[in-house]
Specification:
Elements lengths: L9 H11 L12 H20 L9 H22 L7 E3 L4 H7 L7 H12 L2 E3 H5 L12 H8 L12 H18 L3 H9 L5 H14 L9 H13 L6 H14 L3 H8 L3 H15 L9 H14 L3 H4 L4 H11 L3 H21 L7 H10 L10 H4 L10 H19 L8 H9 L8 H14 L1
Antiparallel strand pairs: 1-2
């Protein structure tokens, strides 16, 4: 499927086109250009999909095709902006917060972090009033759930936590690049500053101020602390490990032990990423088995898992130590055996108990996604989904994987990017492809696994 590239003039197009059509400022949208851009892009994808279904599309030149797609998208955007409920966010100047005014007077102009913070406060950007009222500081790196925030900080339901789309991630990263460029701070200096966790509330508030800047253009109300942590995760978790870094990890653990936070400060990587890399390196060092699992491997894992917890299908209580032992017995890495259990073995046994081993639920899953307009995994309540009768025996992980496989097939068929595939596109792919029956050897192998389990 052909989708016109998003040009550098899109920001101007959004303002000019919608103004000329009497739709700007848009009801409930204000001057939120980014939200309109995202809506326009989704409309481009929909228009491209619609045009591809036309039998005459092959005879159109790319220029004509582009013009037709943009024409359809413009009409769709104007229609949606005049009717769709888009977040109406009450905003206030960032300097309306007393803590921010106090911080501004004590900034060090020689410090890169303070330079970034000072620029934002000097510009006095507009931020969500609701988010500013809940200026929560995170002093730890682990992900904090909405349940914890509601319990400990009385967080209102109108503040979004988690469920971050790729579009939101891209806006956060783009805003970060804009901030660095505006202040003249290098990428390396910026990375060094976000590497460090806040040491106290004042330090945390400085990072929150950066977080408010990162949230510019994002329609929903989010916590500044979360956006900063999201930036930290996206930047510090990216990039392959070099041989030098691998040696540094091994040597550090041999000398000081598994002190991931300390190593994180030295290597500018997230502690969890370093821990996982260490496990991979140790697995290679131990020459563990890699590649596909055979029936004997699967039966061994099932046996070891139920030995560790006979009620695994009801309480899922297998410790890290247990998984290490299972990996040792199976001569596989811990992530490998966990992955095999979660994605294949557990769903197979659960579907056996539910009597749905031979039931293909993909069509029901697609229909559910389309009917409820669930285009992103962040929009889906997987725990609620697995409780529906149509999906008896499935886990949230197995349904996630089914959806991911369908998207991958649609990407290949329509030459689309992963995050461009909506529920409607998945359904179109499903209705226009033939089903392939499971191979006989796969059926026999599943039957043999269940027989061993029984």
């Amino acid at each position: 499927m052909f989708v016109p590239a998003l040009s550098a003039n899109m920001r101007r197009w959004t303002r000019v086109s919608l103004t000329s059509l009497g739709q700007w400022p848009a009801p409930g949208l204000g001057q939120n250009v980014a939200a309109a851009q995202q809506l326009y892009y989704c409309s481009l994808v929909t228009a491209s999909h619609r045009l591809d279904s036309c039998s005459l599309v092959s005879s159109l030149s790319q220029r004509v095709k582009t013009a037709q797609i943009i024409s359809i998208a413009e009409a769709e955007v104007c229609k949606k902006l005049s009717t769709a409920p888009i977040h109406d966010v009450a905003r206030c100047p960032i300097m309306s917060c007393e803590e921010h005014r106090e911080i501004k007077d004590s900034l060090d102009k020689e410090n890169s972090l303070d330079l970034l913070v000072g620029h934002i406060l000097e510009t006095n950007i507009l931020v969500s009033s609701l988010a500013l009222q809940h200026n929560i500081v995170w002093l730890t790196a682990p992900r904090i759930t909405k349940t914890i925030l509601v319990r400990d900080h009385s967080l209102p339901a109108s503040i979004t936590v988690g469920r971050v789309t790729s579009a939101t991630d891209n806006l956060i990263l783009n805003n970060w690049q804009d901030l660095l460029a505006s202040v003249g701070v290098t990428q390396e200096m910026g990375k060094r500053e976000i590497q460090c966790l806040p040491t106290d509330r004042t330090d945390g508030i400085k990072r929150n101020i950066i977080g408010y800047f990162l949230l510019q253009g994002i329609p929903e109300v989010r916590l500044a602390a979360e956006s900063f942590q999201r930036l930290r995760m996206k930047i510090l978790a990216s990039g392959d490990f070099s041989e030098v870094e691998d040696r540094e990890i091994i040597e550090f653990v041999e000398k000081k032990g598994k002190k991931w936070s300390e190593l994180s400060g030295k290597m500018e990587r997230i502690p969890g990423v370093l821990r996982n890399r260490y496990n991979v390196l140790k697995s290679k060092e131990a020459l563990v088995t890699e590649g596909e699992y055979n029936l004997e491997d699967d039966c061994s894992i099932v046996s070891q898992v139920f030995k560790a917890d006979k009620d695994i299908l009801t309480d899922g209580n297998v410790s890290r130590t247990d998984w290490e032992e299972i990996g040792h017995v199976s001569n596989r890495s811990v992530p490998s055996v966990q992955h095999r259990w979660i994605y294949y073995l557990e769903p197979t046994l659960r579907r056996y108990h539910a009597g749905t081993l031979d039931t293909d639920v993909r069509e029901e899953l697609i229909s559910y996604l389309v009917e409820n307009k669930l285009n992103y995994p962040q929009d889906i309540d997987w725990d609620k989904l697995v409780k529906l009768p149509d999906f008896a025996g499935h886990t949230s992980t197995s349904l996630t994987r089914l959806r991911a496989n369908l998207i991958s097939h649609a990407c290949r068929k329509y030459s689309m990017k992963y995050d461009q595939v909506t529920a409607d596109v998945i359904q179109h792919y499903w209705h226009n492809t033939k089903r392939i029956k499971p191979k006989q050897n796969q059926i026999e192998r599943t039957g043999a696994l269940v027989e061993y389990y029984i």
